[in-house]
């Protein structure tokens, strides 16, 4: 990108203040992934209407999909839209699962207020060195940095982890001190995507490893922890998808009760992507199945957007506890 822009110029906020308030208030900031206009409109509408601070986040794939210049103006538009709705909620633009220093630098230059450098698959010392490098760069511009220790099962962007490796609590203090990160993603049994647990007939979703979370909290008291892979995989959507021609047997996520417990702890940021994807897919499938002659995307994407607004409000109000905190 030829010209650079700071997140402050776009009206965005970094995450420092958001996390400090979430930590003392016992709630979590929602981090919703988006790739397109309708998803972003829904996030802004729902968060403005529930007065929830929000992190809008994009993966490397989403950035390529949306176009980095377009993204900058979408983020700026998101802030303006919220203000026109009469809302002053803080909005952060975050890079999800950054995999190189160069990508993080490019995002800082194009107006992101927060970046994740995911070195979780690297040997410990290499993860520290890479994360430290990003922190040193990003902090010059007051951009916050999220690091990760431990590997989630499933697919972390292009890095596939067959099995999860839980975060080792004995490493977190050293990692935070040596890297200077502003928040830390940990692995306590969640995974990305819509198939988080392989359950046998009649089996229940196993509890997350709250014991590991508590051990981490003890070693870095008051430090913001991030939970990835936190979609509930809303069964109403899975059923709609299956009813209208889809095939998503065995899709299952993290029960809301467990997310409520996490949000009340040192977990200050909860990442949600899959639930939004499911809501959109379910509503598009339903709309097209019931209206086979429809070919105006505003009709079926409008339905999807309305459902996303409903979902996000529900999460802010009854799961993360972020409603009214903006
Ligand atoms: O953690 C990964 C996010 O759900 C983003 O996924 O790389 O397909 O955009 P993506
Ligand atoms: P889900 O796949 O559970 O929505 O997780 C998203 C995520 O962690 C993005 O980084
Ligand atoms: Zn993630």
What does this protein look like?
The active site is at residue 96. Keywords: Lyase, Metal-binding, Zinc. The protein is α/β, with parallel strands linked by helices and 326 residues long. It has a single domain (7-319), classed as Aldolase class I (TIM Barrel, Alpha-Beta Barrel). Helices cover 48% and strands 15% of the residues. It contains 13 helices and ten strands. It has helices spanning 7-10, 16-25, 37-49, 60-66, 68-84, 101-109, 124-139, 169-179, 210-219, 235-243, 256-263, 274-290, 297-320; strands at 29-33, 54-59, 91-98, 114-117, 144-149, 154-156, 159-161, 183-186, 225-227, 267-272. The strands form two sheets. It has an eight-stranded parallel beta barrel with strand order 1-2-3-4-5-8-9-10, surrounded by ten helices. Strands 6-7 form a two-stranded antiparallel ribbon. Helix 3 (37-49) crosses helix 13. The model is unreliable at 155-160 (pLDDT under 50). Bound molecules: glyceraldehyde-3-phosphate (G3H), 1,3-dihydroxyacetonephosphate and zinc ion (ZN).
Task: Describe how the helices and strands are arranged.
Layout: H1 7-10, H2 16-25, E1 29-33, H3 37-49, E2 54-59, H4 60-66, H5 68-84, E3 91-98, H6 101-109, E4 114-117, H7 124-139, E5 144-149, E6 154-156, E7 159-161, H8 169-179, E8 183-186, H9 210-219, E9 225-227, H10 235-243, H11 256-263, E10 267-272, H12 274-290, H13 297-320
Parallel strand pairs: 1-2, 1-10, 2-3, 3-4, 4-5, 5-8, 8-9, 9-10
Antiparallel strand pairs: 6-7
Helix pairs in contact: 3-5, 3-13, 6-7, 8-9, 10-12, 12-13
Bound molecules: glyceraldehyde-3-phosphate, 1,3-dihydroxyacetonephosphate (13P) and zinc ion.
